[in-house]
Every structure is written in C-alpha cells, then in structure tokens.
Amino acid sequence: MGKKTDRLRRAKKTRARIKKLGTDRLCVHKTSKHVYAQVISSNCSTVIACASSLDKEIRDKVKYTGNIEAAIVVGEILAKRAKKAGVKKVAFDRSGFKFHGRIQALANAARENGIEF
Length: 117
Prior knowledge:
This protein has helices spanning 3-21, 56-59, 68-84, 102-112; strands spanning 25-30, 35-40, 47-52, 91-93. It is of the alpha+beta class.
C-alpha cells in the first residue's frame, strides 16, 4: 500500500467513529501549498463553516500559504465563523494526517478561539 492509501484508510476509520458520536466535525485537509478546513454538520450533508489558505482574507495576512503560520490563521478564522454559525463543540477529523505540524497548529488555533473538541 502507498502513503495515500494508508492515509485514506486511517481517515475512513476515524470518520466511522465520528459518525457514531453524531456530532459536527471539523475536517482538515492539507496539500503542499494550502490548508483547508471546514465544519460539517452531523448529518454529513451540510457545510456549516469553512476557511482555507485560498481565502483572500488569509492570503493578505500571510506570506506563504503552505506553512504553520497560514494554518494558525485558518484555524482562527474558522473558529470565528463556526462560533458565528452557533457551533461550539466538534469532533476533529484530521483526514488521516498525523497530528503534528500544520494540522496541530490549526487545531490549537481553533481551540484557543473557542471551539471545543
């Protein structure tokens, strides 16, 4: 199996556990150049809030969109948008990525700005 297959297998297992909880989930995806995050409702059909390093608001604040600084800004803005939509508690879906670097920075920024998981 390759790296991507392993990651998708881990993501599938995590999403199955989150589905049993029945809570909204904060789903994160990263590429080499960007970070994407969205809060998805518990019925898995509606995106409640989203933020990515492609947003103009974020691109103006950071020099490069594929690093930890950009992930922190994405986490802060996502938390603000989610709180505005009425979401306070979510399950963290890291999409099979290891919890370090940009994923960890985004999660910590969201926690500091009022999202619980």
